Amino acid sequence: MGAIVPGLWGTPQDALSHLIYLFGNQTQLAFGSLNSAINGIPPLIHEKFPCPTKQPCSALIFIEEATEAIGHPNKLQFLQLAQKLAASTAMKENQRFSIAFYGNGIFHKTELQTFNGFNQTLTAFIDSIQTSDSPNAGQTRLAPILTDLRNVINSGAVQNYAILLMGELEKVLDPNQASTLAQTIGKSGANVYVLDQSIGAISNYLWGLLTNFQPNHIINGSSNNFNSFYDTFEQTLISDFNNYNC
């Protein structure tokens, strides 16, 4: 690549013609002035010598039950928790992130994004929950979102998955189908944590299937303590996620 600068002999047009000739008539490599070179050379370098892009390696997925049973405070707090946890990651270029919502169906499916794209999506949902408490379903069906999650895991888009699901089991209308899917996900190798918002004496066996009964992967959410939740998942979920190597 080259550029013409002012001189004593000849004309800029003649100089540019000679420069193009030197470059084998590749006109895109010759610039008639320094200003045009300043604007034209950087994109040309990126075109001719592109930097290798790392393929996605690992995904951090947050899933929220957005229902009346969960309630507005818990929904908002979980999104704020997800935002803070995601900001605690190493933010490597081969990491991906997602936020998904379910209620009587899927409100927002699992979509793997870069950190910046994910953060924009999450901020928009935080604003929506704050202003209109939407989405806010009256019923809870767990199977649709677990089907979506299973499909994402089986897609092979990345090698490693760290997942945090916040939900409750008291109002679930499809426990049998959800249990079958939870067992499949639990045995897939995905690293699943659950923030359990169930109240009362109800079995959390379904959560056990989903987490493959790994110790300390089901956290009781009844304390509603943001700082405690953050400390717990920063030391477990985020630590696991940052340690993934491909």
From TrEMBL:
Organism: Panagrolaimus davidi
Name of the protein in its database record: VWFA domain-containing protein
InterPro entries for the chain: vWFA_dom_sf
